[in-house]
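Running co-folding for adenosine monophosphate.
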Amino acid sequence: MTITVVGSIAFDGLETPSGVRERIAGGAAFHFAQAASFYTDVRVVGPVGDDFSDEDMALLATRGTNTDDVERIAGGKTFFWKGKYHDDLNTRDTITTELNVFETFDPKLSDASKASEVLFLANIVPGLQRAVRAQCEAAKWVALDSMDLWIDIMRADLVAAIGEVDCLILNDGELQQLTGARTTYAAAQAIFGWEKAPSAIIAKLGSYGATLYTNDGGGFTVPVFPLENVVDPTGAGDTFAGGVVGYVAARLAKDPGLKVDRDVLAAALIHGTATASHNVEAFGAEKLADLPGSEVQARVDRLVELTRSPDATIELRA
Ligand code: AMP
């Protein structure tokens, strides 16, 4: 079961309390692929410039990720993003966003990428997400991520894009911004009420974990993996999505008729959390690129223990 992902492939400039990287390979699709490639084959769709070196491309191709649909634009410059984190690591300022080759990108997928049964629309202009969604007619399960920028300036396009997917993955604050609701739960219910809506919504809660809502009233919450130190949170959301979508694809590969319901997605949240926890322990792909899958599984097992509930029934006074 192959996953196609469209999203930014970038150079990132990063400043965190642990150090500085002037320019390292990153981007939403890049971080997603680092994680999803633990589970299945990944095909990346997106443009880069002449400045994206063969070594950068090799890093994108970690664990066999296919880069045939990564378009190298002659004379173009790769998307560049620079961010600086505050001491709490939960908040950051965007210093620079240079869209560069993304300004004129018109995705044309190869037949192999169109044929993927699982699709991830990583954070990028909603119109591009829709263009890729339209080409992937064979996709059985589709998830989408976005960000505050597109809610601010292209809300109608984003709402249309969300209406075409099975699962929406957003930060809790973004869900509230998108809907005007006061709680994340209310935001999810508002979206489920749209004329065209996904059947599942995953709220990323930053350093507090993630919560799933399904449109049949189901839900699940996972805490973040307990870590002594976080080096660079960049791409945590995308590696989380890579673990979630990768797990769903791996389950669908075993059982093509599987309904991607609350239980499947609850387990997927645990996988997303485990992969993201490794990602934040180093800059860029410095840890995930060489990480054995067994180390992801060890954290999955620990998270399963941490989320196991005892029977909590007791007789309460009237
Ligand atoms: P996250 O930390 O999960 O929000 O993802 C950070 C990644 O998103 C970085 O590697 C950036 O290159 C990428 N990124 C930042 N801003 C944008 C944007 N406006 N559009 C697409 N990707 C972006």
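Result summary
The mean pLDDT is 97.
The chain is about 35% helix and 25% strand.
Job closed.
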